[in-house]
Amino acid sequence: MIGVAWSPDGGVLATAGAEGSVKLWNPRTGERRKNVDGFGKEVTGLQAAGSSLRFVALSGAGGGRLFKADGEKVRDLASVPDYLQALAVSPDGRWIVGGDDRGNVRVWDAENGQLRQSWAP
Questions:
Q1: Residue 103: what are its φ and ψ, rounded to 5°?
Q2: pLDDT tens digits, residue range 32-86?
Q3: Which of 18, 24, 77, 92 is 20 to 30 A from 38 via CA?
Q4: Which domains are seen in the chain, by residue range?
Q5: Which phi and psi angles does 37 have, rounded to 5°?
Q6: Is the dihedral of CA 99, 82, 34, 93 positive or negative?
Q7: Do the beta carbons of residue 67 and residue 75 sit within 8 Å?
């Protein structure tokens, strides 16, 4: 397992791993509700997105996804050519920040998935 995240209401626990998927769990019963697949490589970052029932995941394949706590895709993030390995989401869920294996920092707009800024080390 690489990452875990709670939904803001505590009703969903998300886990991410090297198999390239996110698993959504009922934390009260331990029942797996859904797999969110299609990340291409291991999911390297996972976090709740603001106060809504959404999560963000980044992968080593240079991609990311915003999805609901039931697993439904909201949108993909614009891909980058590097191995993403760090993730932060602004408190309001509007901005997604990822760091890659070469020290670059990237900022996506969660409203449309577009890459807005990049900073080199």
A1: 90, 5
A2: 999 999 999 999 999 999 888 999 999 999 999 999 999 999 999 999 999 999 9
A3: 92
A4: 3-119 (2.130.10.10)
A5: -110, 180
A6: positive
A7: no
